[in-house]
Amino acid sequence: MRLRCGRALLVLAGLWLLAAPDTGQGQSLVADRPDFTEATSTVGLGGFQLELGYTLGLDTNGEFTTRVHSYGEPLLRVGVFVERLELRVGTTAVTQVAEASPTGVVTSGLEDLYVGAKIALSGQRGVLPATAILPQMTVATGTGGFSAGRTLPGFNFLYSWDLNETLSLAGSTQVNAAVGDMDENYSEWAQSLSWGIATGQRSGVYAEWYAFVPAGLAGGRAEHYLNSGLTWLANDDLQWDVRIGFGLNDGAEDMYVGAGVVMRVR
Questions:
Q1: Alpha carbon 129 to chain centroid, angstroms
Q2: I want to staple 233 with a disulfide (CB 3.0 to 4.6 A). Which of 9, 116, 202, 257 is the partner?
Q3: Of 239, 229, 232, 231, which is closest to residue 263 (Cα–Cα)?
Q4: How far is Cα 236 from Cα 261, in angstroms, rounded to an integer?
Q5: Whole-prediction pTM value?
Q6: Does residue 102 register a pLDDT over 70?
Q7: What is the largest CA-CA distance in the chain?
Q8: Which of 205, 211, 210 shows the shortest CA–CA distance to 243?
Q9: Do the beta carbons of residue 36 and residue 241 sit within 8 Å?
Q10: What is the pLDDT of residues 163-203, one digit of tens each?
Q11: Distance of alpha carbon 135 from alpha carbon 119, whole angstroms
């Protein structure tokens, strides 16, 4: 009986995805970078979007500074089957320079593969936000100390409001499986709020707070960040961005800067 009910729910969910009205996937390019908060919209059926970037992070511990270079940061987003569904895959190359000696200790590698599926649930209706869900996971494909060594599933709930023609508010609440320094398993919650302001027909700025909070990790510390950035739409299918962020507590990285580009094929 339970198996039949489960199959019935899957069928109903599939029919809802096919029959539900469009949730506001327009022709405008909407990127999931440079802020931490993902957009509630998808790239649309048949859409193909590649998001790339570079980030330099700095963290000082006593008299030594660690620099982390994140290269490429590719995220490929593809709209499949219906307007409100997209599949996503990404990874990045990392170089870490720890200045604990005159020459520094340099380690490089590839992070674990990220895989996800964004499902847009509803458009904004009055005070009710536009919403989407994002089941996601990382797969142990990374190298050396940049891999968790196992598959780590997670779930992200997204919501956003267009407050007027120029101001928007978005947020996300997510929980992901994680691995500690001693190879122990725990859950990591993440929360974000992002304010966006359109400063022209093709430009915008944003300010954002986000935090990581470990659950079930002995001695684990929360990390709080504040970041801001600028986006510029070169044309309807090409966007550039720059950003800067700062850690707000001892558990967070001190600061980071970055830049990126988003390219769409329709």
A1: 19
A2: 202
A3: 239
A4: 13
A5: 0.88
A6: no
A7: 68
A8: 205
A9: no
A10: 999 999 999 999 999 999 889 999 999 999 999 999 999 99
A11: 9
